[in-house]
Amino acid sequence: MHAKDKEIKTNNIIPFIPEGDFYFTKGVEAFQKRKFDIAIKWMKKATDMKPDEPLYKCQMSIIYTEIGAYHAANQLLTSVLQSSDYIDCYYLIANNYAHLGLLNDARKYADSYLDKEPDGDFSDEARSLLELIDIDEEDDEDWTLEDEDELLIYQETAFYHLENMEWEKALPIIEEMMTIFPEHSMAKHDYTQALFFTGREQEAIDMEEEILQENPNSLYSHINLALYYYEKSIKEEYENHIQALINIYPIHEQQKLRIAITLARTGFHQEAYARFRMLSKEKVNSHVSYFKWYSVTAYQNGDPGKALTIWEEGCRRHPKLSKEEGPWI
């Protein structure tokens, strides 16, 4: 090729300058592959190209939500609402507030979304979120600072005994806590556990059934009754409660953990394994039961290496665990 011809062909090349849609598409592809760092980079390029496009910012907020950056997600969504009325933002903000434990704010935005879009793309999710908030408020009680300190001491003491399956020691502590703090609903659920595993099984079941009748949204009643009926081999009742749990994805880590453990203890190892993998370890590593049952489900799902790693970490954090049989037994 002559130099002149080469120069002409070079000059005819049209430079490719991607529009925002190209970057957005690449970001979505990376997000679907769970490559979140790369997805954020592409989405930032997309928003730089089209800063007024609400869809780009909303998608970036969803990525932030996925990695737990809830405040950053809500900052983006709030900026969208300042310049447009992109209704989906209301649900997305509600979801982030729920993860942050700000349930009143979550309820407000979920209600706003349903007021504006009762049949919108996120209407089912918004209603489910409101149901979860109702369930979560079972634990939401007001105490004075002095009461909180005293209650915390009782809770920590009872927690230690329950986690180590020291049921006889847990019973009098919980009984005393129930006398001093009769409105503290969680104590009743802990009490039925201690009752059940000290041989007073029917008394524990009757008490949980009574609580559930008064509050059909009681997550902890479903958790306890699923386990009790499983242990008693009462299949129909057990299946009713376990199916209720399989369809519930709580907001708080402690509730997520309780469901994961219950699924593991009743033979739903695949479902339990998925739940354990979704937990934030930093928030639940004070629980011996987290390491014990997570390692069991890992082993039962064909990953003995991971099971051993979890078990060994559990033994380092909680030396008493080493006295129990490993997940391979």
If you had to describe this structure to a student in words, what would you say it looks like?
This is Tetratricopeptide repeat protein. It comes from Oceanobacillus longus. Keywords: TPR repeat. The protein is mainly alpha-helical and 329 residues long. It folds into 3 domains: 20-138, Tetratricopeptide repeat domain (Serine Threonine Protein Phosphatase 5, Tetratricopeptide repeat), CATH 1.25.40.10; 141-248, Serine Threonine Protein Phosphatase 5, Tetratricopeptide repeat (Alpha Horseshoe), CATH 1.25.40; 259-329, Serine Threonine Protein Phosphatase 5, Tetratricopeptide repeat (Alpha Horseshoe). Helix content is 73%, strand content 0%. The chain has 19 helices and no strands. It has helices at 3-11, 20-32, 36-49, 54-66, 70-83, 88-99, 103-116, 123-136, 145-163, 167-180, 185-196, 201-214, 219-231, 235-246, 253-265, 269-277, 281-284, 288-300, 304-317. Helix 12 runs antiparallel to helix 13 (219-231). The termini are far apart.
CATH superfamily of the largest domain: Tetratricopeptide repeat domain
How many domains would you count in the coordinates? 3
Main beta sheet, described?
Answer: none
Mean pLDDT: 85
CATH architecture of the largest domain: Alpha Horseshoe
Tally of individual helices = 19
Give the fraction of residues assigned to helices.
Answer: over 70%
Rg over C-alpha atoms, rounded to the nearest angstrom: 25 Å
| Residue windows where pLDDT falls under 50 for at least 5 positions | 1-17
The total strand number stands at: 0
Indicate the overall shape.
globular
The fold-level CATH name of the largest domain is Serine Threonine Protein Phosphatase 5, Tetratricopeptide repeat
CATH class identity of the largest domain: Mainly Alpha
Q: What order do the SSEs take from the amino end to the carboxyl end, as H and E?
A: HHHHHHHHHHHHHHHHHHH
Q: State the end-to-end CA separation.
A: 75 Å
Structural class by secondary-structure content: mainly alpha
What is the beta-strand fraction? under 5%
